[in-house]
Amino acid sequence: MQLNWTGVYPALTTQFTADGALDWGTYRHNVEAQLQAGVQGLIVCGSLGEGSSLSLEEKLLIAEKTLAISAGRVPVILNLAERSNRDAIYLAQQAEQRGVHGLMLLPPMQYKADEREVVAYFRDVASATRLPIMIYNNPVDYKIFVSVDMFRQLMVHDNIQAVKESTRDLTNITRMRNAFGDRFKIMGGVDTLTVECLVMGADGLVAGLVNAFPRETVVIYELIQQGRIAEARELFAWFLPLLELDIHPKLVQYIKLAELAVGLGNEYVRPPRLGLEGEERQRVWQIIQDALARRPAIEQLVR
What we know:
The protein has 12 helices and 8 strands. By secondary structure, the protein is of the alpha/beta class. It has helices spanning 24-37, 56-70, 85-97, 115-127, 139-142, 148-154, 171-180, 194-199, 214-225, 229-243, 251-262, 278-293; strands at residues 7-10, 42-44, 76-80, 102-105, 133-137, 160-165, 185-188, 204-207.
């Protein structure tokens, strides 16, 4: 399956039961909702998918299950956020063997590697697989910035094709375009900058609140592609209080609470994360309920 790196790609949550087991029924329900809403790819086992609490084999199992649910409708991308080159290469090769369509690749975790080490890590993984790769550039959360010069060194790998742009610096989109033209597809990676990223030329979105509000997310993307910026801005203005749940350290708990509120998931997480309680849960729940009370009639915007 061809990976075009355009459109809306949910960074899927991983659904658990109360005792921490994988909840396949709830997971399937969410994935089907994403597909019905018109997403163009599925990303599994990212930070929102609680990848840090999953074993290597669980990650591969989730990828396989997602492939089965999707049944060829859209590409499935496995996130790699590993501590070592060895584990990242193992996952990349196993993912390729099992039919995964692409990879999202973070810099090495738990070690603030320098530029030479990060480039070597990316090149090691790219050399070990034929799968298309999207580099995740998020210096705010992961403290490593993948610069234009680093991307220039990565150009020799044809399978490094895209970047998840989460620097929070919108000028970086133009910086990448000036340096490389269309060599790298650019996917906006920060929910609160959805409209801005797309207007500045991003090819698509890797989104978080799409897990609870898939149709709204897809429609914003479609409106901007149609040049209907004012309508996209109006929908985005309603969406923003929810999108801000994505830029908090507890984004997993917050987004899972939103999934619960709309019937697309549950709020169970794996330790070290703990479920929300008390005033914090009530505050986030109220944000969600306030938005639901004003939820626009989305299909009226669709032509």
